[in-house]
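Lecture notes, part 5. Sequence design as translation. It can be helpful to think of inverse folding as translation between two languages: the language of shapes and the language of residues. The source text, in C-alpha cells, appears below.
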C-alpha cells in the first residue's frame, strides 16, 4: 500500500506541474501530459480505494 501512496504522490505532482504549465504558459504538450497523468492518477486512486476497503475488513 505504501508503494501505491508514493505512486499517487508522484502522479499528482506530475499532473500539477504540467497542468500549471498549460494554464500559465499555454504549453499544449504539457496539457497532453497533464491529461495522461490524470488518467493514471485516476487508476491509482481507484486501486487505493479498493485496497483500503479490503484492509478495513
Amino acid at each position: 500500500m505504501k508503494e501505491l501512496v508514493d505512486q499517487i504522490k508522484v502522479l499528482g505532482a506530475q499532473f500539477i506541474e504540467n497542468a500549471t504549465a498549460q494554464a500559465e504558459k499555454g504549453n499544449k504538450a504539457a496539457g497532453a501530459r497533464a491529461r495522461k497523468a490524470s488518467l493514471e492518477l485516476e487508476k491509482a486512486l481507484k486501486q487505493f480505494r479498493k485496497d483500503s476497503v479490503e484492509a478495513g475488513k
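The translated text above is only one of many valid answers, since several sequences can fold into similar shapes. Residues 2-55 form one domain.
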